[in-house]
From TrEMBL:
InterPro entries, sorted: NA-bd_OB-fold, S1_domain, Sll1717-like
Species this chain originates from: Anaerobacillus arseniciselenatis
S1 motif domain span: 535-607
Name of protein: S1 motif domain-containing protein
PROSITE patterns in UniProt: S1
Signal peptide: none
Length: 609
């Protein structure tokens, strides 16, 4: 075992593509952890073809892992990765080129291309046919039987003339069709006709393009697949809420990409081509944006039953056995390990690397409370530690956690910003973040409304209050907190929707609080100048009792207010004599239920212990 410091731990990169580019494939595979709920076999041999999840949940990483898994099962397997960032197809691709049966390509589209289009299925079908032909050529014709049916298919595909560089395809505005005919003298002529893909009209020859794609699909259904496994892995396509035309065009592109992939996999199944499949990663927030901003064409019906959602929530959330914590332990173990040496046990690593508590909280619980149960959180955590002033430490001491806290919070906020770009403009994102900056870490709906009306009356939060809050909840920016029972609700822990009510509080995620200049100390100082709120937990001193009421006082951060408890709010059973349950001078733990205007008192409910 090597003696290492925090800065020596294998961190990887926030993006799986970057990690493989710069760190290598072997390190990536060694540190990969499969989420427990993920049915990989359904992706490899079943009908599932989509990997869904929020940003940072490991969708792209799972594509690479699946490719490696397929290759381990059958060394003859061929795969093709399609990305929507062309720079990845260039950067250090020797990591892939050394495997002769793995291909890389990219598809891009310029900002001013096909902005008026709302249908892209035929374009996608054409691009995938081109990809299949190119891959078969790249793998020395080993994917499909070279017979009359294959020749017929490739001949049809070749009639559609697009960009020459198949490794770096650019979706064009215009293409050419070469449709041959024989003149009266018997000479075969193949004139080229222009097709403007942005115009669907007879004069534009678009119908000829459509017919060729349909003919290609019909021909492809008759080709014979060889025994060599062939997979196309398609990485997620982004869409950013900036320029409205570009944004909607990109959503149409993504929507129809999903429909096309489902269509192709159906063709593979019906044509008994069992060892060929297209697997695609899709961002949950992009699917939400499609349903929200464009005609979705019932997209959910296409993905439902065919997706493997990446979720990392786990019942034992305060344990090092949580899969997210296992990622951290695995990276430490690999970094410590000498060549051909076995890894230390989790128990040994935990004892060496972590204190008993961090700010009086068990270490794994502290890390998970500051995460969204995503692998990328652990990468960000390690990198923040390595960039801190205590990076030479030989363990994750209290000092290391304290020194990384601010940068980790800032980087986490930037991650949320990126996710918000699928829903809001840059200006709207800054307005939303400004609403919460310097406010409070836990607050009521009424307090938030008052702040917005006073300082941000023209912001998107003022005009779309509930919608923005629900978006922020889905993205993990905020959660719910119920003071009476100290119950928390978070999207990443399986709680589907935000509760907006007087009794429930809204809470900013703990990892974001430092970046937003909020926290418990700040909350306490602000509460001293505020009035009580419905849902607040307060200490109630009994002063007097009557047949149906207990009267007394509540102490709210140094200020005293008159209050009462009705007999029905004292216990969950019938009460014959109120004095059997309370006595004068006693202090009760209560929750505020309303303000009684008639008696100018706060009405309370006793919290059952």
């Amino acid at each position: 075992m090597k003696k290492i410091t925090v800065k020596d731990i294998y961190s990887g990169k926030p993006d799986a593509k970057d990690e493989i580019n710069f760190e290598g494939l072997s390190g990536f595979i060694k540190t990969f952890i499969v989420p427990q709920n993920s049915d990989l076999e359904s992706l490899l041999t079943g009908n599932h073809c989509f990997i869904s999840g929020y940003k940072g949940t490991g969708k792209t990483a799972l594509l690479f892992y699946l490719d490696n898994l397929i290759r381990e099962k059958d060394s003859s397997a061929c795969s093709s990765f399609v990305f929507f960032k062309e720079e990845f197809a260039e950067l250090k691709k020797e990591e892939f080129d050394k495997f002769s049966k793995r291909g890389l390509s990219s598809i891009t589209i310029d900002k001013d291309t096909l902005l008026k289009n709302s249908e892209f299925e035929y374009i996608w079908r054409w691009l995938f046919f081109k990809r299949i032909v190119a891959d078969n050529d790249g793998f020395n014709g080993g994917l499909f039987l070279d017979n009359e049916q294959w020749s017929n298919f490739t001949n049809i595909v070749s009639k559609i003339k697009g960009p020459i560089n198949i490794k770096k395809s650019v979706i064009p505005n215009r293409i050419k069709l070469a449709i041959p005919y024989t003149d009266p003298t018997g000479v075969s002529i193949a004139p080229e006709m222009d097709v403007d893909l942005s115009k669907d009209s007879k004069e534009n020859n678009y119908s000829s393009f459509v017919k060729l794609v349909d003919d290609a699909e019909n021909a492809f259904s008759k080709v014979t697949k060889t025994d060599i496994p062939y997979h196309i892995f398609v990485d997620e396509l982004e869409a950013y809420f900036g320029d409205q035309e570009v944004f909607k065009r990109d959503l149409y592109l993504i929507r129809d990409l999903i429909f096309t992939i489902k269509r192709f996999n159906s063709i593979f199944s019906s044509s008994t081509m069992k060892n060929i499949k297209i697997i695609c990663s899709i961002r949950s927030e992009i699917v939400n944006a499609i349903s929200r901003f464009i005609v979705s064409k019932e997209l959910n019906k296409v993905t439902s039953g065919f997706e493997v959602p990446l979720k990392w929530n786990y019942n034992n959330t305060n344990s090092f056995s949580h899969p997210i914590m296992q990622i951290l332990l695995r990276r430490i173990a690999i970094s410590e390990c000498e060549d051909d040496e076995g890894y230390r046990s989790d128990k040994e690593i935990i004892a060496h690397w972590f204190p008993e508590t961090i700010h009086d909280i068990e270490p794994s619980n502290y890390v998970l409370n500051n995460s969204w149960n995503k692998p990328r959180d652990i990468v960000r955590f390690i990198i923040s530690a390595q960039n801190s002033i205590n990076s030479d430490s030989t363990s994750f001491s209290q000092a290391v956690f304290s020194s990384l806290h601010k940068q980790y919070s800032l980087d986490s906020l930037n991650e949320i910003r990126e996710e918000m770009r699928a829903l809001y403009t840059s200006e709207q994102i800054e307005d939303i973040i400004n609403v919460f900056t310097g406010f409070k870490s836990i607050f009521s709906v009424e307090q938030l409304r008052n702040r917005i009306s006073k300082f941000f009356a023209d912001s998107v939060m003022a005009t779309n209050f509930n919608a923005v809050l629900n978006d922020l909840y889905r993205l993990g920016f905020i959660g719910n907190y119920f003071p009476a029972s100290k119950m928390y609700r978070w999207q990443h822990k399986g709680d589907d929707r935000l509760i907006i009510s007087d009794e429930w509080r809204i809470m900013i995620h703990q990892a974001l609080q430092s970046a937003l200049s909020v926290g418990k100390k700040h909350d306490y100082s602000m509460k001293r100048f505020e009035k009580p709120q419905i849902g607040d937990v307060v200490s109630f001193e009994v002063k007097a009792t009557s047949k149906s009421f207990v009267n007394g006082l509540i102490d709210y951060y140094g200020k005293v207010y008159p209050a009462y408890i009705h007999i029905s709010k004292i216990a969950d059973t019938y009460i014959h004599d109120i004095n059997d349950y309370v006595t004068e001078g006693e202090e009760l733990r209560t929750v505020i239920t309303e303000y009684d205007e008639r008696w100018s008192k706060w009405s309370l409910r006793k919290i059952q212990e």
